[in-house]
């Protein structure tokens, strides 16, 4: 039988680009399909901060961070909490990914021209024991150029494949079915959507103008997760995280809808760990949105005081930046789906970073001058724009006015000024000494022992109610949808498996559609900086495996 290509790749995000690039290197002919327009090539990765998880990197060593493969694997396994029979392949993928992150990952990217910001970030600090959740050391390496800088070499490699006649790019092709014409799945059918020049990230038309049917020796699914489909998020919401939120904002565009997962399942694929997901608790509504219900995540330093909807301080160790899903579980059991940061201008100027390539024009534009200007600014420009225009921000000179502003943003006036003042004053008293019983203050001081945090990420300890540090700021935080941690079960060759554990012949998967590898490489929780790397590692793996299989 004459096929249209050796391999069909479904999804032109980072995993799909990495897979296609590897297939091109092997001389295979590829058709790359995506339901969105060509200007959306790169998918979610384009919008990312560009954070990557490396182990014992040159950047870490320059900052005197002592990291190792053993420590990273300990952190990964303690964070993932694998405890199900179906975690067999996810566990193997986790071991393989840590090997990659501690081995050739950085050098592989460096050879392609990817460079990294010299200061390493410390996300998901945990706060439990050594075998529990969290990164024991800073491992969050920011790509110089953020998301666009990371996808660029893979776009370049794919376009080189187009020039060589090895790759056909077929955008506005929405897959509706996978089927067999012989023993293996070799046929992809779908609809052609009308052409669109819509800006990247905005909702594109779903007007159907035609149909298609294509065949190949292998099909690779790299179509992403479910974060843009709030109904599907709620349908899969786990009981362990409490009730599903009534209100969520979207950290991904609407086309991240999970359609392809259901199509693959209908063709015989096994979908596992549906209830494992990664949503952020520090979401703010974008004052200048790109997609519908567009939310931005605050990447906070450790100093903001965190209160629930009623003004109760969140318990230890649920400090900013320590345990995302532990905080989510706590919030959803309060009966409300929002919380508050209370801080001051001194803290926001040093500690607030905003996730997203468009929120970090200095790093995205690779401008050393602008990075220096950002470090010297009282409040960085993108953050100041949210202070001025963001609907979730209250900025006032005194606490009484701040509380009135907080209560004006919610359905019920739940914050009591006297109670909130007691909490803040009590915390402020703990600042007088270099030692304290307040574990958040201890964490702040500990963070500043790391040079990177001291330089650019953690404000010097001070009283929040000190007028010299003002004005006071309150930020209403929403639940922000983002990543799907479960997915299509795959073996270490990225072959999709069936309910019986046998390969679904002809079908492979990578990226978020495969839970970043195996059907859930992160287990229950992520160490952060591992999503982009998961797209890359699983995309590279599937491209090489499929190239060998069809050779």
From TrEMBL:
Residues 6-532 form the FAD-dependent oxidoreductase 2 FAD-binding domain. Keywords: Flavoprotein, Oxidoreductase. It comes from the Bacteria. One of its GO terms (molecular function) is steroid dehydrogenase activity, acting on the CH-CH group of donors. It holds the Pfam family FAD_binding_2. Gene3D superfamilies: FAD/NAD(P)-binding domain (3.50.50.60), Succinate dehydrogenase/fumarate reductase flavoprotein, catalytic domain (3.90.700.10). PANTHER family: 3-KETOSTEROID-DELTA-1-DEHYDROGENASE (PTHR43260), KSDD-LIKE STEROID DEHYDROGENASE RV0785 (PTHR43260:SF1). This is FAD-dependent oxidoreductase 2 FAD-binding domain-containing protein. It comes from Streptomyces avermitilis (strain ATCC 31267 / DSM 46492 / JCM 5070 / NBRC 14893 / NCIMB 12804 / NRRL 8165 / MA-4680).
């Amino acid at each position: 039988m004459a096929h249209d290509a050796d391999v069909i790749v479904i999804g032109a995000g980072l995993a799909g680009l990495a897979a296609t690039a590897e297939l091109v290197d092997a001389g295979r002919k590829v058709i790359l399909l995506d339901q969105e327009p060509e200007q959306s090539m790169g998918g979610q990765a384009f919008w990312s901060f560009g954070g990557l998880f490396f182990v014992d990197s040159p950047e870490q060593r320059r900052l005197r961070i002592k990291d190792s493969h053993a420590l990273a694997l300990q952190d990964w396994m303690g964070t993932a909490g694998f405890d199900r029979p179906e975690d067999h392949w996810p566990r193997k993928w986790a071991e393989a990914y840590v090997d990659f992150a501690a081995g050739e990952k950085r050098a592989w990217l460096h050879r392609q021209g990817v460079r990294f910001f010299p200061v390493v970030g410390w996300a998901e600090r945990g706060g439990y024991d050594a075998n529990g959740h969290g990164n024991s050391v800073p491992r969050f390496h920011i790509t110089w150029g953020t998301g666009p800088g990371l996808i660029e070499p893979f776009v370049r490699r794919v376009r080189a494949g187009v020039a060589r006649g090895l790759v056909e790019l077929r955008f506005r092709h929405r897959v509706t079915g996978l089927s067999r014409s012989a023993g293996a799945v070799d046929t992809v059918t779908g609809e052609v959507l009308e052409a669109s020049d819509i800006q990247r990230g905005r909702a594109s038309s779903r007007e159907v103008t035609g149909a298609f049917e294509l065949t190949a020796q292998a099909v690779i699914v790299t179509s992403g997760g479910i974060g843009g489909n709030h109904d599907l998020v709620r349908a899969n919401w786990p009981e362990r995280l409490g009730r599903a939120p009534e209100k969520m904002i979207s950290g991904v565009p609407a086309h991240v809808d999970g359609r392809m997962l259901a199509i693959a399942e209908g063709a015989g694929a096994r979908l596992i760990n549906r209830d494992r997901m990664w949503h952020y608790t520090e979401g703010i509504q974008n004052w200048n949105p790109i997609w519908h219900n567009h939310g931005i995540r605050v990447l906070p330093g450790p100093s903001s005081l965190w209160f629930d909807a009623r003004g109760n301080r969140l318990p230890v160790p649920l400090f900013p930046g320590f345990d995302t899903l532990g905080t989510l579980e706590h919030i959803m059991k309060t009966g409300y789906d929002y919380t508050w940061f209370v801080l001051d201008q001194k803290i926001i100027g040093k500690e607030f970073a905003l996730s997203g390539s468009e929120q970090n024009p200095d790093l995205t534009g690779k401008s050393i001058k602008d990075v220096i200007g950002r470090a010297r600014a009282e409040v960085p420009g993108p953050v100041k724009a949210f202070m001025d225009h963001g609907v979730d921000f209250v900025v006032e000179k005194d606490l009484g006015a701040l509380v009135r502003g907080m209560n004006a943003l919610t359905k019920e006036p739940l914050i009591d000024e006297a109670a909130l003042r007691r909490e803040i004053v009590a915390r402020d008293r703990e600042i007088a000494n270099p030692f304290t019983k307040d574990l958040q203050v201890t964490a702040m001081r500990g963070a500043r022992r790391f040079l990177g945090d001291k330089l650019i990420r953690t404000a010097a300890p001070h009283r929040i109610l000190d007028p010299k540090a003002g004005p006071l700021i309150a930020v209403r935080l929403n639940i922000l949808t983002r990543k799907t941690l479960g997915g299509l079960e795959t073996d270490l060759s990225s072959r999709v498996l069936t309910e019986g554990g046998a390969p679904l012949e002809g079908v492979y998967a990578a990226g978020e559609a495969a839970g970043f590898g195996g059907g859930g490489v992160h287990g229950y929780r992520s160490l952060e900086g591992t999503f982009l790397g998961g797209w890359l590692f699983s995309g590279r793996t599937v491209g090489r495996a499929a190239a060998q299989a069809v050779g």
